[in-house]
Amino acid sequence: MIKNYFKIAWRNLWKNKVSSVINIVGLAVGMAACIVILLFVSYEKSFDSFHGEDIVRLNEVQKFPGMAASQKVALSMYPMAPALKADFPEVKDYTRVKWDDKYQLTYNEKRIFVPQVLAVDSSFFNIFNFKVVKGDALAAIQKPNSVAITEETAEKLFGKEDPIGKIINHYGGDTVKFTVTAVMANAPKNSQLQFDALYSLAGIHQKWMDNWGGNWLNTYLKLTPGTNLKAFNGKMEGFLKKHLPRDNWKYYEVFYLPLKDVHAGSTDIGLDYLNFQKFDQKSTNLFAIIAIIVLVIACVNFMNLSTARSADRAKEVGIRKSIGANRPQLALQFLGETILLSLLALVFAIVLVEVGLPYVNNLSLRDISLPVFSKPLFLPLILLGTIAVGFVSGIYPALFLSSFQPVKVLKGSIETGKNKGTLRNVLVVGQFTSAVFLMIATVFVVKQLDFMQKKDPGFTREQMVTIPLDRISGQKYQLFKQQLLNNTLVAGVTASQDQLGSHLDQSGVNFKYKDSPERNMAATQLIVDNDYLKVYNIKMSEGKNFSTEKSQNGREYIVNEAMADELLKDHKGATRASLIGQRFGYDSLGVITGISKNFNFNSMHYKVENLFIVNQSEWGFRTVSVKIKAGSSKEAIEFIKATWKQVNPDHPFEYEFLDDHFAEVYRADNQVSKIVGILAGLAILISCLGLFGLASFSAEKRIKEIGVRKVLGASVQNIVVLLSTHFIKLVLIANLIAWPLAWYAMNLWLKDFAFHIDITLGTFIFVAALSVIIALLTISFQSVKAAIANPVKSLKTE
């Protein structure tokens, strides 16, 4: 009997080729989208899963006077970890991690720059489960001047030579010799901690590190099993009161995140330098929801087309019931057909996934693959999911078709489609409501990203090249600058400690306005050379730029308008101009020489913070900014590279256009935009497939009516309008439902941006028009085909 069911199912699929193809393609696309998103979600969930349980990261909330708002940071103080272990039995162990990027390592005559080296406590391997290939990794983090390197670093430095016991050098502010004691496996890509070498934090210990108040490393704790993290967080205020001097505890809060939540749950935490490929959990959940919607739309297509074509199976049901078949048997048969169709769709879905994964990996910068053999449970889960999709898609059509009464069916008195048109209409409206909602969301997301990238940030971003400096190359900055300015390809050169578009550091400062008491506060700082504002074309609101010579008043400071307003909030009636010449700064107080207009030195996600700019070249710079002549990028880069090699022959030349850096700032937003856009496109595609199938069925069922109308003089245009009007009404109803939902969702989403676009009616009208055009194009083929058919043949057909 089962064999017979398969034969009937296959014959039915082959007989109704159009609806079968629509169903298989729709289900395949929906399944492929779900599988890809499932793989992405699984990859995101796998971050740091290979480490043990009960590991947390310490984070701070800083709320200094003068700051517009408190900020969460991933950094912590060096003395915190041992104090926590001493004070709380919940803390079993800890490790602290300090990073150095673009770290120089030399072996004999071979010199390389590795992306990141970590200095760690000797307990590092008590917390983290990174693999050691050979040697003694524990010695590397216990003994000063020892190092464990990764396999990739070992190959770069030593090739096929055994690195254990070899001496390598680091040339920075001081020359340091390291003995290689171990080779480690490369850090997995799903690890928030990425490194090329490990060495002992104890080897760099200095007295200033023991001071409370300096935040410059990451702290990880291993808690006793069963620790209530909420209750433990609640004990931190008392801990800070005990250890921080004076009333400084008021400016800090401490909270902990489980290690497994750090990767996806810390998008609101700044200075998070050790969080590889950080991605917002909310975006991952959004992808999953949209992928499920796409799959549901495909399932709805199947129900629509199956119930619409119920008349084609009515006589079959009547005959089978008359010779003894019962309703459960028939329902099982129809469900089996649906599951068979789902399994066929799964084959095509797997092909689509294999074709699409390289693009997804390129877009997401992940290394996702189909784990057919690496994860034994993958195939059974996918098969169970496919059967579930077949069951959900087919349960209603199966129950509906198996309910026909054989006497009425065989007498031809049953109207198999009666009262089912309403349900089909509701399902079509539901499909297009989802699709229109996603279209509107995609348009607004794209417009917001375009707005952020094109909005004037208040400084020149075009034709700006940035070059990183370290301690050695930084000492030759002035020479490098003068050499560059000798060429007409270069329009300006400046330097700073931080790069625009990156998170700038905060610092405490003092301010004294005329005879008022001195005020202590904190603000974002930018340390620059004298030409910075001129090269970046940052406009002044009051006062003047930095002096070209040493000021007689000490250090010179320029504050932005937001900072100026903060300084004057206790001095009613005072103007910004009155700040010029007032005492301001850290260490020995300097003076405010000017007020710059506000500029967006950070992402458009954030409002402009209070900022002060100081020209302090003796503290060194970490970034050179070179403004090059428009239209001569290639020649200018070659000249800059040659000049760098001349001034810094032992350092590799690295550069980045500032526009590219800001594109990286908005990388996660762009990824979300493209993925949502792709899923929206798939939703529209599947909805249109269903609409095409229903239009085909409608035209087929009204073929005689169309013939009569044509005989009576109806034109092709009249027939097309007749067949299209009903479906267009459904699409318009879907728009009316989707609009308020999209308006609410977009309002909620745009609140995450300090600078954002307005929600305008034009976008909704545009999407409505586009959806109607897409629907018309979808159904026009069948409508025109029916309209131009020979009425004689139509009327002769029985």
From TrEMBL:
Membrane topology, as annotated:
Multi-pass membrane protein
Q: Does the keyword Protease apply?
A: no
Tell me yes or no: is Ribonucleoprotein among this UniProt entry's keywords. no
The cross-references to InterPro entries, in alphabetical order and at most eight, read: ABC3_permease_C, MacB_PCD, Macrolide_Exporter_MacB
Where is this protein found? Cell membrane
Please give the GO cellular component terms listed in this UniProt entry. Answer: plasma membrane
Provide a Gene Ontology MF annotation, just one. Answer: transmembrane transporter activity
Which terms are listed as keywords in the entry?
Cell membrane, Membrane, Transmembrane, Transmembrane helix
Residues passing through the membrane, by range: 21-43, 286-305, 330-357, 377-401, 422-446, 675-698, 719-741, 753-777
All copies of the ABC3 transporter permease C-terminal domain together span: 289-406, 678-790
Q: Which Pfam family, giving just one, matches this sequence?
A: MacB_PCD
Q: Where is the MacB-like periplasmic core domain?
A: 20-237, 441-638
Query: Which PROSITE patterns does the entry mention?
Result: PROKAR_LIPOPROTEIN (PS51257)
Q: What name has this protein been given in UniProt?
A: ABC transporter permease
